[in-house]
Amino acid sequence: MYQDLQGKTAIVTGSSKGIGKAIAERFGKERMNVVVNYLGDSAGADEAADFIEKAGGRAVTVKADVSSEEGIQALFDAAQEHFGGVDVMVNNSGFNGAEAMPHEMSLEDWQKVIDVNVTGTFLGAKAALNHMLQRGTKGTVLNISSVHQQIPRPENVQYATSKGGIKMMTETMALNYADKGIRVNAIAPGTIATESNEDLQDETHKQTQLKKIPMNAFGKPEEVAAAAAWMVSEEARYVTGTTLFVDGGMTLYPSQLER
């Protein structure tokens, strides 16, 4: 547990399920104030908020589309109204999109992923930076990326491109605001056992995916959340512009083990 996080306020986008929900709940265990964001899953958001409250934190749920400035503003308005400001911004919302070869991908399928994964992350970070600069807050922006910011993802060029963009966005923003005491970092999960991970639903796909992971196991959302808690705490005070991979070694070229 990180004592310095107690009483601080975080916005976690896309926190009604999966990794986002695990991060929001971990922040509850740290006794933080959490703005739980959802778009369609109000029940999941309510579950996360209830967990946070029972763990000793405080929570409010907000329905908002993070790919729009209005949606992002709604999250900051709620944080200001209920908790008085924002110390931590976690840009977690994202999705894979439809698989297709690049030459067959529609502009619509490309744009949907870019709008949420890249534009949504930019808008969340931009709003957080403005908020922190205006208040003199030495806060933290944490972007949730993917191993696919480094590993190409065939038939999912829009997703890999979006995560590569988040990597460079994180590094550039970190460089811009380091002298203001605002840290900008990213976490890049590998294959995490969430309810929406299609690779784990079919046994054949599951075994194929395990071969890509040197630790021969899938990650848990709670393990990503543990990394997030450290990254936004004062124990990581000297860390900015960094991507922390939580991937069981997936980015270590496991094919090199084959003989």
UniProtKB/TrEMBL annotation:
A Pfam family (short name) is adh_short_C2
Record EC number: 1.1.1.47
Name the Gene Ontology molecular function terms of this record.
glucose 1-dehydrogenase [NAD(P)+] activity
Gene3D superfamilies (UniProt xref) = NAD(P)-binding Rossmann-like Domain (3.40.50.720)
Annotated source species = Bacillus amyloliquefaciens (strain ATCC 23350 / DSM 7 / BCRC 11601 / CCUG 28519 / NBRC 15535 / NRRL B-14393 / F)
Task: Tell me which InterPro entries the record gives.
Answer: NAD(P)-bd_dom_sf, Sc_DH/Rdtase_CS, SDR, SDR_fam
Q: Which gene encodes it?
A: ycdF
Q: What is this protein called?
A: General stress protein, similar to glucose 1-dehydrogenase, survival of ethanol stress and low temperatures
Q: What class of enzyme is it?
A: oxidoreductase
Per UniProt, the keywords (alphabetical) are:
Oxidoreductase
**What family does the entry list?**
Belongs to the short-chain dehydrogenases/reductases (SDR) family.
Q: Which domain of life is it from?
A: Bacteria
A GO biological process held by the record: bile acid metabolic process
